Amino acid sequence: MSEFETRIFIDGQFVQGQGLVELAFELAHGTPLAEVASASSAQIDTAIAAADAAYKGWARHLSEERSAALWRIADLTKENADVLANVESRNAGKPLRFVKSGELANVADVFRFYATVLRNMPAPASGNYRPP
After folding, report:
1. What is d(CA 59, CA 127) in angstroms, rounded to the nearest whole number?
2. For the chain, is the Cβ count within 10 Å smaller at the N or the C terminus?
3. Are residues 56 and 67 in the same domain?
4. What per-residue confidence (pLDDT) applies to 48?
5. Is the distance from CB of 14 to CB of 44 less than 8 angstroms?
6. Would you report the helix, strand and coil content of the chain in percent, each value rounded to 5?
7. Closest Cα to residue 64, out of 13, 111, 110, 131?
8. Triad 43, 51, 124: Cα angle to 5°
9. What is the pLDDT of residues 57-102, one digit of tens each?
10. Domain range for residue 39?
11. Same domain, 55 and 66
12. CA distance 19 to 44
C-alpha cells in the first residue's frame, strides 16, 4: 500500500515492525496513505539495548566529530526536503509549502544549532576537543 519506507530502524537496520499495525490516512483526501507496524515489546527492548550501546561509542567521539554528524543530518534534511515534505504534507494534511519552507527548515536549523553548541561549549562539558 505504501510508496515510501514504513519499516522501523533498529540497531542499524530497517526491520518490519512486529507490533500493532496502524493505518495512516492522507487527510486532505481521507484515503489510506500507509499501513505502519509498530515495534513489538521485544523489538523495543532490542532498540533500547542498541541505543545504549551506540551512545557509549558516540560519547567517545570528539565534539568536533559529533558536531559534524549533526551538521550532516541538517544537510541531508535539506537535500531530501522535497521527499520529506511530501510525506509530512500528505500525512498531516498541511500545505506543502508550509512544511517545506517552515517545518523542515526548522528541523535542519535545530540540528545546526546543537552542532554549533557542541563546538562552543567549554571542553569539559563537551567531552573535550582533543583526544586524550
Report:
1. 8
2. C
3. no
4. 98
5. no
6. 60, 15, 25
7. 131
8. 165
9. 888 888 889 999 999 999 999 999 999 999 999 988 899 999 988 8
10. 1-60
11. no
12. 10
